[in-house]
Amino acid sequence: MTTIYRHELPQLKGGAFLTDGGMETTLIFHEGADLPHFASFVLLATPEGRKQTEDYYRRYLDIAARHGSGFVLDTPTWRASADWGDKLGYSADALRAVNEDAVNLLVDLRALYQKPGAPIVISGAIGPRGDGYKAGRMTAGEAEAYHAEQIEAFAGTDADMVTAFTLTNVEEAIGIARAARRLAMPCAISFTVETDGNLITGQTLRQAIEAVDAATGDYPHYYMINCAHPSHFAEVVASGEDWLKRIGGIRANASRMSHAELDESETLDDGDPADLGRRYRELTRQMPHVRVLGGCCGTDHRHVAAICEACLPEMRLSA
Q: Which of 70, 114, 193, 283 has its C-alpha lying 20 to 30 A from 136's C-alpha?
């Protein structure tokens, strides 16, 4: 095991870091992949699926290479935890192997793309135990026990950190952060908000972040917002209050639709990449400490390219 950035994450020092878009929506709607339960890790089981996954990442890494930006490579393991593994027929040992293999895939890609001044951070991606559009029902202790298994798998690899995406409640976030702290893995926590900018539980983003910090000794290295359109949370982050400095990344949806509408839609709403880029520029002006930019549902390499072109020139000036 040769971790590069686990003890000093470069995105905490400034600069611009891209990441990918909506992996599952891209693979399903644009490429026709069969992803049961939205589990992209199943593609790693075949040479064809593995190549498809590599090609997906390369499109984004090529954008970063052209612009000389850093990159956060998230593993395709959003669904690679115990409950989802059970539904997909994976044992605990098989899931551990999948999480390890996913990191190895990204290590190989990093070796091909990383250049001086443009670090590539490998992050083990964690998803919620339940539906990313619904409130969870675990205590923090239950969440810590559940997610520790996947985080432990990442801790034994070359992953530099873990990132928990589409979290809808504070208790699960606390549990993940505590497990990451116990296993000495840097972590980022990414919350999903509704069209009113609040969590589905009714808590504000500020309340959620402050509650997790209070319960974990400020352990998360930064927070992110994902799986919501910028119009859903733009007013929330416009205040300039100090708590916003804890937000270090944005991975927004392409669509303005609510989660309920997206859940029922049989077609992909990929929005307007140029408009999304402009909205990101406004967000990064309001939050100049945000360094990690990517997409979520409905976004693909076109959206990330537009975000890159809209935001990176100003981000470099403010660094």
A: 283
